[in-house]
Amino acid sequence: MPRLQLFFIYSLDAKSVGVKLGILGLGTVGTGTVQLLQDTAGRHPLLKEIEIYRVGVRSLSKPRQVELSTGVVTTDLEAIVNDPEIDIIVEVMGGLEPARTLILTAIKNGKHVVTANKAAISRFGAEIFTAANQAGVYVMLEAAVGGGIPVIQPLKQSLSVNRIHGITGIVNGTTNYILTRMQTEGSDFNDVLADAQRLGYAEADPTADIDGLDAADKIAILASLGFDGRINLQDVYCEGIRQVSKTDISYAAKLGFVIKLLAIAKHQTSDHSQLSVRVHPTLVPQTHPLASINGVYNAILVEGEPIGQVMFFGPGAGAGATASAVCSDILNLVATLKTNTPKSNPLLACRHENYLQITPISELVTRFYARFLTKDQPSVIGKLGTCFGKYGVSLESVVQTGFQAQLAEIVVVTHDVREGDFRQALAEIETLEAIDSIPSILRVI
Amino acid sequence: MPRLQLFFIYSLDAKSVGVKLGILGLGTVGTGTVQLLQDTAGRHPLLKEIEIYRVGVRSLSKPRQVELSTGVVTTDLEAIVNDPEIDIIVEVMGGLEPARTLILTAIKNGKHVVTANKAAISRFGAEIFTAANQAGVYVMLEAAVGGGIPVIQPLKQSLSVNRIHGITGIVNGTTNYILTRMQTEGSDFNDVLADAQRLGYAEADPTADIDGLDAADKIAILASLGFDGRINLQDVYCEGIRQVSKTDISYAAKLGFVIKLLAIAKHQTSDHSQLSVRVHPTLVPQTHPLASINGVYNAILVEGEPIGQVMFFGPGAGAGATASAVCSDILNLVATLKTNTPKSNPLLACRHENYLQITPISELVTRFYARFLTKDQPSVIGKLGTCFGKYGVSLESVVQTGFQAQLAEIVVVTHDVREGDFRQALAEIETLEAIDSIPSILRVI
């Protein structure tokens, strides 16, 4: 590396008062961000050099929890991303459009971007990062995954000296809250969901959370960083928690497991040729680090070589926690702007151009949990075993208990099996006369 | 901020092959670091630009697990820190001297430093960082605390937008391993220690671990980053685990606690005027996030506003994990060198000059656990209560069980009390005729 460098820098630095922000959106996260930036005592001193220059909102008449000077708040969001005075755009409005267009315009105008928008990044990341690299600006997204938990930056920086083997996360607080309550109270999914909606832990339309779509957005982002390439969101297998019953939670507990909605990105083979990225309810051994993550908390477990396992735990949502992540990205950009750096920092920029090949779910190799309702025939376990054996499915444990309306209940946990083979075995088992139904099929980690 | 800047850069960049490292020490961590840097496929591409230029060792004849070209390995450590070709010094030799002198010489020579040396940093940090700031170089220390867990960088960067209220860690793997085994096996401290030494989890001279000195070094470093000032190591109260008995572990369990060696830096009052920094065995509620951190694992819980609680968990030691941290620091420096930045990055540099005022342990306000052996007198609990009351100590729970050689055993847990008051009460209680002895006094979180 060069030991001798001469720099001649002409900057307009002397007159400038600070870094100017344009904030798009003044909802929960936007309000939290403004509150943090307006109350800097006891925080990093660099925050004092930030000026909230414009805040874009949908309605000027809506009552706000923060005070902003006249002229700062505007409904003209396009004017903000086109304002030459503004250095950094903070996109905390959410949704796909106009967020995407505003981000792209800001980038085209040479502005750095901080966003909390997992939906837009997981769908338009390729377009956004390509534009950012061309314009020589940074797009920062710590708040997009895990709320306040610092996980994006560690993955991009500290942990990137490792070969990442897997990223496994509880990244959706709503579903974790529901599953935790179902577990501790023995309640039904629908009852807990209704109560969670009443308490504000679940949205009126809970689809994005409950069906795993939010978690899929997040694991796509984490996988992209951990495995060094772009992810096509359509390749992420996604299954929500609507089908998880209190019966299964109770069987799982007897077998030494808890049920969690996990978002998983993992190399399936040691030669790293097969990467599986998926979201589904999962039986997690009670001794697993993720098993004790309860309520609205999030946790992300990263496995790599040589580090082994590290886990990041914290609040996955909320105004304050998310504002912490947004402001940490702003701080990082301000620090970078302060260095007057002529070249972009390779640890802040996005460096992926290739798309990652994702293994289809039928090729996944995993353990399964399945619950069968069977007619009360003495040979039914034998028949199940024969059918499983035919497709190479071997069983780790079989539990036969309980009767519901003349039906026996059989629960099996398999050894590792290719999902396609397991599904074929199930299809054949379903045709057996002794089988009434297969109410649950869940994967086991 | 300036929108217009002109840079004229004359650098010798074109000819340079990469960033040159001088590594001091080729023990466990040094070997792990060299192995990682020699095997870069699948890791961050920037690692390929690093050249292991010199490695300083004590003995050339010792067999090594890594191959290095002729001329790279040398016993002349001073020549390494004075070599003008070298950009970064990686100090992984440990110990106080000559590590301190070599680091200071490297800094004086304009070299950036990566160190895993918690003992040197906690003692000579002020001197080292002052020198580094004067020379305009960075001193990076991710590996000094928590092995591979990224915690130094999050504290310096992401989390620094928060007002930090407390940092609480299990930062010594040896003592956590011993306490975990005492707990699960019901064994005595001395037996587990002997076995841990046999298995290589504890050193032949276990003092630094067992007596909490290693944890004190680490919490001094964490506190300095979290609370933004220098720490005088002498101000850190330190108590090890030699006195923790299986009896206390068993009583704690009955009361809903586990016993952990915690390293704590915490604002005691809401006005942040009193900062307490300390290491001691602690009763931790079984539901606390740190209660389930077992074996050689480390975890650091950070509490702040507005983030709430975040926790970092992972392997606290070991060649691979520590090498991951060392290399993440090297990567960060390489990235910074690549940007040809004319100004130092305020998020990488150390910004503390003031010393933090640490509250003496007598001023600590905490709950206590105490175990008394008393003569079998009917009024003994009453006498204890009277004496505690006199000094403002109120009791949360009192358990009287068991008899050992005609003595009754009484265990109390207090409400929050000023430690000085509690000690005065104990001094008076010790003089009571009914009291045989006070075998254990532990703090409760």
Automatic annotation (TrEMBL), chains A, B:
Under the heading SUPFAM superfamilies, the entry gives: ACT-like (SSF55021), Glyceraldehyde-3-phosphate dehydrogenase-like, C-terminal domain (SSF55347), NAD(P)-binding Rossmann-fold domains (SSF51735)
One Pfam family, short name please? Homoserine_dh
* Domain called ACT: residue spans: 369-445
A GO biological process this protein is involved in?
A: threonine biosynthetic process
Q: Annotated Gene Ontology MF terms?
A: homoserine dehydrogenase activity; NADP binding
Positions annotated to bind NADP(+): 24-31
Would you say which domain of life the source belongs to? Bacteria
At which positions is NADPH bound? 118
Q: Which reaction does it catalyse?
A: L-homoserine + NADP(+) = L-aspartate 4-semialdehyde + NADPH + H(+)
Query: Pathway of this protein?
Result: Amino-acid biosynthesis; L-threonine biosynthesis; L-threonine from L-aspartate: step 3/5; Amino-acid biosynthesis; L-methionine biosynthesis via de novo pathway; L-homoserine from L-aspartate: step 3/3
Q: Please list the cofactors this protein needs.
A: a metal cation
Which residues of the sequence carry a binding annotation for L-homoserine?
A: 203
- Keyword Oxidoreductase in annotation: yes
What protein family is recorded? Belongs to the homoserine dehydrogenase family.
**Can you say what this protein is called?**
Homoserine dehydrogenase
User: What does the record give as the organism's lineage?
Assistant: Bacteria, Bacillati, Cyanobacteriota, Cyanophyceae, Nostocales
